[in-house]
Amino acid sequence: MVDAQDGESALVAGDEFRLVIVSTPDAECAGRLAHGLVQERLAACVSQVPGVQSTYRWQGAIESSSEVLLLAKTTAAKLPSLGDWIRKHHPYEVPEIIGLQLAEVERAYGAWLSNSG
Question: What is the pTM of this model?
């Protein structure tokens, strides 16, 4: 992708950035966790995606439940602390915490993300 203003790529390597996926049982929990992650400066932004239907095996039975998915944007350096905080504040016995390394990030967004902590 080329930035029309300066001819340079608008995307930069995303090696230092992470997208963390966390499922939550409901909107109240999602809001509390999202607010806490941003307040504690563990994530620059947390998007809440309602209406997720999850099917999984738990304690030998197949379960299905509605959940709210969190998409937390953070840096690699904050990932261990973010995971610890989620485990401490999440109601699930085994919370879903999946950190994905980003291949590319829009330059200005990456700068904002780096400086949001």
Answer: 0.88
- The 10 Å CB-count burial string (b at 16+, else e) for 52-91 is eeeeeeeeeeeeeeebbbbbbbbbeebbeebbebbeeebe
- What domains can be seen in the chain, in order of their start residue? 14-115 (3.30.70.120)
Q: Tens digit of pLDDT for each residue in 22-79?
A: 999 999 999 999 999 999 999 999 999 999 999 999 999 999 999 999 999 999 999 9
Which pair of structure tokens corresponds to residue 80? Answer: 């261990």
The total of other beta-carbon atoms located within 10 Å of residue 13's CB is 11
* Locus of tokens 């780096």: 114
Question: 23: which 2 tokens?
Answer: 């499922």
Contact (CB, 8 A) for 39 and 87: no
Strand bridging mode 17-24 / 61-75: antiparallel
Report d(CA 44, CA 106) in Å as an integer. Answer: 15
